[in-house]
């Protein structure tokens, strides 16, 4: 079972993949989380 935070990160990765696909790129979304900070491919999201 995923936690709410993990679901949020997964949804962000899917959103980035959709954005890439809509721009004609390959549909990949990458999200890294470290110490409650999130860094997304091509965009940065910081949450505390």
Give structural notes.
It is built from one helix and three strands, in the order αβββ. The radius of gyration is 11 Å and the shape is elongated. Strand 2 (37-40) and strand 3 (43-45) form a beta hairpin. Helices cover 40% and strands 23% of the residues. The chain has one domain.
For the largest sheet, list the strands in their spatial order. Answer: 1-2-3
SSE-based structural type: alpha+beta
Helix count equals 1
Could you give a short account of the major beta sheet? 3 strands, antiparallel
Helix content: 25-40%
Our estimate of the beta-strand percent is 15-25%
Characteristic terms for this protein:
three-stranded antiparallel beta sheet, alpha+beta, 1 helix, disordered C terminus, single chain, 48 residues
Secondary-structure blueprint:
Layout lengths: L3 H19 L8 E4 L2 E4 L2 E3 L3
Antiparallel strand pairs: 1-2, 2-3
Brief summary of the model shown:
The protein is an alpha+beta fold and 48 residues long. It is 40% helix and 23% strand.
